[in-house]
Amino acid sequence: ITILGIESSCDDTSAAVIRDGALLSNVIASQAVHSDWGGVIPELASRAHSQNIVPVIDSALKKAGVTSDDIDAVAFTRGPGLLGSLLVGVSFAKGFSIAKNVPLIEVNHLQGHILSHFVELPDKTIEKPNFPFLCLLVSGGHTQIVLVRDYFDMEIVGSTIDDAAGEAFDKCAKVMGLPYPGGPLIDKLSKEGNPKKFKFAKPNIAGFDFSFSGLKTSFLYFLRDEIADNPNFIEENKADLAASLQATIVDILVSKVVKAAKEYDIEEIAIAGGVSANSGLREAIAAECSKRGWRAHIPEFFLTTDNAAMIAITGYFKYLREDFSSLDIAPIARSAEMGL
Ligand code: ATP
Ligand code: FE
User: Fold this and answer.
1) Secondary structure (3-state) at 258
2) Percent of the chain with pLDDT over 90
3) Residues 107, 241: contact at Cβ < 8 Å?
4) What is the DSSP annotation of 268-312?
5) Origin, by domain of life (predicted)?
6) How far is Cα 222 from Cα 233, in angstroms, rounded to an integer?
7) What is the reported pTM?
């Protein structure tokens, strides 16, 4: 079974081909236009998707060594995401489904991030998670602890009450004068910094929920006070600030997911979403799990941020269940309306 997957929820246009669960190709066109603006500009994103989608799909088919005639179903991201961006992928998928007379399969972007752990790679054997497992889903728009009982039986057991972890990285990076998205830059700077140099307040939130807006505010006020004394404070402490900030965010994330694992008696933890590319988080999750004799699932880098491989694999599992969508399907922007 050969599935074409399409992802266009935010600022990356991506297409992938998966055959019987194994990845044949995954092509991503990232949009550079947004870094000048300090964030993703929806109108610019939709326009770039519109320009990129045909070449990206062509390239994914070519790299996979298939033609559009070999595709058994087309899977696309229905949401959550930016409506204008989603519309490009949804419309293309419908057109493809009609033209090639193949089933159309909607995919929840967040389920896609989680199920990215099931993509089989050509050059590496991965140990797929066993059900049930806990997934820490940390991205630009979401921060959740998900109890994954089966492919399509997922329950959110904790989530952020304000900002997402990726947002916390990006907003704090912005305060430091770094371009968007700041998360990867903080990660890079951290490698040369002292994570214990500065202490930032950690939120005290009950249960398995998260909060990051307080950290962002305290980071901002801390810098403002220091800059009043020394205008070069940020420049002189860049790496230590990044490392200390990253250590704080990672600690907040890891302590909650460990707490949830104990509560639900689960010994298998996966991380997914853009922030799961973070080296501090990857190391901390691996260390916590090995200390406790639990299994950690750390994704390949290309599967952390938005990609169509995760959409295609989710589409593949839906295909096996004959879970198809009708042609009048519309995208959904908000995750609250989509669930998991
Ligand atoms: P969502 O999936 O919630 O709709 P999204 O698709 O925009 O949001 P992703 O592409 O999954 O989000 O992740 C992007 C986020 O990941 C950004 O906030 C970015 O800063 C962050 N990020 C990427 N790499 C790193 C890294 N190495 N360290 C920290 N954050 C990172
Ligand atoms: Fe995403």
Assistant:
1) helix
2) 93
3) no
4) EEEEESGGGG-HHHHHHHHHHHHHHT-EEE---GGGTSS-SHHHH
5) Bacteria
6) 11
7) 0.96
**275 ligand 1 Cβ < 6 A:** yes
Instruction: Give the ligand at the shortest distance from the Cα of 137.
Output: 1
pLDDT at 30: 86
pLDDT, one tens digit per residue, over 201-260 is 899 999 999 999 999 999 999 999 999 999 999 999 999 999 999 999 999 999 999 999
Tell me whether the omega of the peptide bond preceding residue 80 falls within 30 degrees of 0, making it cis. Answer: yes
Nearest ligand 1 atom, CA 305: 10
In the DSSP assignment, the letter for residue 182 is: -
Q: Which residues contact 316 (CB under 8 A, 6 or more apart)?
A: 1, 3, 18, 20, 21, 75
Assess: ipTM above 0.95.
Answer: yes
The response to whether residue 79 sits with its C-beta less than 6 Å from ligand 1 reads no
Query: Two tokens at 204?
Result: 């005290």
- Cα-to-centroid distance, 71 and ligand 1 (Å): 30
